[in-house]
Design brief:
Strand order of the largest sheet: 2-5-1-6-7
Order of helices and strands: EHEHEEHEHHEHHHEH
Strand content: 5-15%
Low-confidence stretches: 1-6, 206-218
Oligomer: single chain
Number of helices: 9
Structural class: alpha/beta
Number of strands: 7
Radius of gyration: 17 Å
Distance between the termini: 26 Å
Largest sheet: 5 strands, parallel
């Protein structure tokens, strides 16, 4: 059960007028982009991958000012709302979180998502899975022998991300009438919540959107 004891709390708050602006947060590899694409289809709003906006071919970083403009344009592209995955708070500040009607914090056990991340990275090394952004191919040296490794980042940031998002949940969680919903566990809680969202969207008559604001990624 999600948020047991508060059965009146809907799976997503929205803005009260049928518009949903959902910010998905959590550590690298927890499944943010997968959920983002699923919610985009369910709710009929664009999916925006911050990774795909920030990283150019060859891992070129978009300058901060240009990044902020591109993100702002993406957020304003559809009046019905958006689904955003990622943070980039040091570059975007609270641009995304301030506009969100809902914040979904994915917080599964490290033992669940670390093996999935390792497998995805292995497939990317073999060019059998799409990179986080077009032209940003994984290289063995960076994956295994660099502190910039996504695997190393995942392991070393698990606790700090949990502490940061846990504080946001304490202050602004759905249990207190706020926007932040924590979804943890080994998968059953997430599956149950997605069923609730799908039922809600079908009841509201939400239509799927044919194209996303960005091409699919997987973080």
């Amino acid at each position: 059960m999600i948020d047991s004891g508060r059965p009146a709390v809907p799976p997503l708050r929205g803005d009260g007028a049928g518009h949903f602006r959902v910010h998905i947060v959590g550590n690298s590899g927890v499944g943010k982009s997968t959920l983002g694409r699923e919610l985009s289809e369910m709710l009929g709003v664009p999916y925006i991958s911050l990774d795909r906006i920030f990283w150019g071919p060859g891992w070129a970083q978009t300058p901060t000012d240009a990044f902020r403009v591109k993100v702002r344009d993406a957020l304003d592209s559809d009046p019905r709302g958006w689904i955003v995955d990622g943070m980039y708070k040091s570059k975007l500040g609270t641009m995304v979180s301030d506009g969100a009607t809902d914040v979904i914090w994915l917080d599964p056990p490290l033992l669940l998502y670390l093996p999935r991340l390792c497998w995805r990275t292995f497939l990317r090394l073999l060019r059998l899975a799409s990179p986080c952004s077009p032209g940003c191919e994984e290289r063995a040296r960076e994956v295994f022998f660099s502190r910039d490794s996504i695997i190393w980042w995942c392991i070393t940031h698990h606790r700090s991300v949990r502490k940061r998002e846990g504080e946001a949940f304490r202050v602004d969680g759905v249990h207190a009438g706020g926007r932040v919903r924590r979804i943890g566990g080994w998968g059953a809680e997430l599956a149950a919540w997605k069923r609730e969202v799908r039922a809600m969207s079908m009841q509201a008559g939400a239509l799927p959107l044919a194209a996303s604001a960005s091409a699919p990624g997987s973080t």
